[in-house]
Design goal:
Length: 217
């Protein structure tokens, strides 16, 4: 074996070790959801937004969502259909998970949170999805659009803008996102049914099947 060959093999071995180390590091820092039940304290906090609440609390569906995410918008009609069908049987919890690459995702989450201060969380949440093709995937801030939504919903616009910019609102959104990261959420939408990550496609039929299994227990 020539000296050049030995050097080449040594370099390749070093590269392999470094790459393996990077992969292991990334795996530990960004855990994937597993079939294990998620910690209840991180999954649903006392101030988490419940879109529907079941009296018996037997089944809870938690969604980590990004309001600018097209997949979330695609899942939205199915979630709303399930909410209508299981309004008195299933608790549906909405948690923010804005993806950093989406220019207006965090701002949209803050807009929903600001609307919640005036009792219009659901109205703003629905409006975001119904108008997503108009404001999503934009490279410039959609603040004026969201303020327009507040006006459309009859909110006190000055109070809305104050809440939109408040550090408490920013922190509230980040708490949700940090909980999602800790639970292994990597993308949106991510659903948990009674604490267990939903692994199928987030369709109405798929989610309904998972909910029915829990209700039958």
């Amino acid at each position: 074996m020539t000296s050049n060959t030995k050097i080449s093999l040594t370099v390749l071995a070093v590269i392999a070790v470094v790459v393996t180390g990077i992969l292991l590091l990334n795996r530990s820092e960004t855990p994937q959801p597993t079939s294990a039940t998620a910690p209840a304290a991180q999954l649903v906090r006392p101030d988490s937004h419940r879109l529907s609440t079941a009296a018996d609390g037997k089944v809870t569906v938690v969604e980590f969502l990004d309001l600018e995410c097209e997949a979330c918008a695609a899942a939205y009609p199915g979630v709303e259909k399930l909410r209508a069908e299981y309004a008195d049987k299933v608790t549906f919890v909405m948690r923010y998970f804005p993806i950093p690459s989406h220019r207006n995702a965090e701002l949209a989450a803050r807009a929903v949170e600001a609307a919640a201060k005036q009792g219009k969380l659901e109205g703003m949440y629905k409006l975001m999805y119904e108008t997503q093709p108009q404001w999503g995937e934009q490279s410039v801030s959609q603040r004026a659009t969201f303020v327009g939504f507040a006006r459309q919903l009859g909110l006190d616009v000055k109070a809305f803008e104050t809440a939109l910019d408040a550090q408490a609102t920013i922190d509230r959104v980040l708490v949700d996102r940090n909980d999602g990261v800790a639970l292994g959420v990597r993308g949106t939408p991510t659903f948990f049914v009674n604490g267990v990550p939903f692994s199928g496609r987030p369709t109405y039929e798929g989610l309904k099947a998972a909910v029915d299994v829990e209700l039958a227990k």
